[in-house]
Design brief:
single chain; about 240 residues; alpha/beta; five-stranded parallel sheet; about 20% strand; 4pyrrole_Mease_sub1; methyltransferase activity; S-adenosyl-L-methionine; SAM-dependent methyltransferase; cytoplasm
């Protein structure tokens, strides 16, 4: 008779959205989980170790076993990453900022865990997407997160026009992001492409001391001056009726 093999659990561990006191946005369950988890899958080992130390200073860093999952990771490595789970050890999955698996490469590990019958345990923490939507005043009953806009100028214009039409046709809030150093250029494009009465929410540095969240019609944004350079932002549009 084959011995029964107990699988480990995959814990989805949220992180802060920037440099701040973790206690301001993260519950004690994060520290309690880090206390008994030694295996981690992260985007950046250095920042992950720094985060773990900030949450749990007593945690012995040499005991941590960290696998790096980013755009350079090959798909054949995924199996190696989940092997500890198959051996009965718990693993923590962490995003570089916010919630793992949401606009984050960790989703592939979560999918693989489900395929292998591994229990997935999501923990509570900040999501810039949901926090921005909450604060926008736009439709939180129906919304879509569209990730990054196309870089090509023509494709970007078409995408924005399509999102604007969807927001009108479906009464649906449309969310997207941009690489932070391109934020000011994106804002310029938004003000040139969208209709004057379309509502635009800009939510940046969410939960940080420099947090800035404002919703205005495009025509009113044209009267504002705001510098979004290198500030993580969520953009939301919703066409006025």
């Amino acid at each position: 008779m084959k011995p029964i093999t107990f699988l480990g659990k995959l814990y989805l561990i949220p992180t802060t959205l920037g440099e701040m006191n973790p206690e301001d946005v993260l519950p004690q369950t994060i520290k309690r989980t880090i206390d008994f988890v030694d295996h981690y899958i992260v985007e950046n080992e250095k920042t992950a170790r720094r985060f773990i130390k900030s949450i749990h200073p007593e945690k012995k860093q040499p005991e941590l076993k960290i696998s790096v999952l980013n755009k350079h990771t090959e798909s054949h490595e995924f199996q190696e990453f989940i092997q500890p789970l198959l051996n009965g050890q718990n693993v923590g999955l962490m995003s570089e900022a916010g919630c793992p698996g949401v606009a984050d490469p960790g989703a592939v590990i979560v999918k693989l865990a489900h395929e292998k019958g591994i229990q997935v345990v999501p923990l509570v923490g900040p999501s810039s997407i949901l926090l921005a939507l909450m604060a926008s005043g736009m439709n939180g009953q129906s919304f879509a997160f569209n990730g990054y806009l196309p870089i090509d100028k023509g494709e970007k214009k078409s995408a924005l026009k399509n999102f604007e039409k969807l927001s009108f046709d479906k009464n649906q809030s449309q969310l997207f992001i941009e690489t932070p150093y391109r934020n000011n250029k994106l804002l310029e494009d938004l003000l040139n492409i969208l209709q004057p009465n379309t509502n635009l929410c800009i939510a940046c540095d969410i939960t940080l001391p420099t947090e800035y969240i404002k919703t205005l019609a495009v025509k009113d944004w044209k009267k504002q001056k705001v510098d979004l350079h290198n500030r993580p932002c969520i953009f939301i549009i919703h066409k006025n009726y």
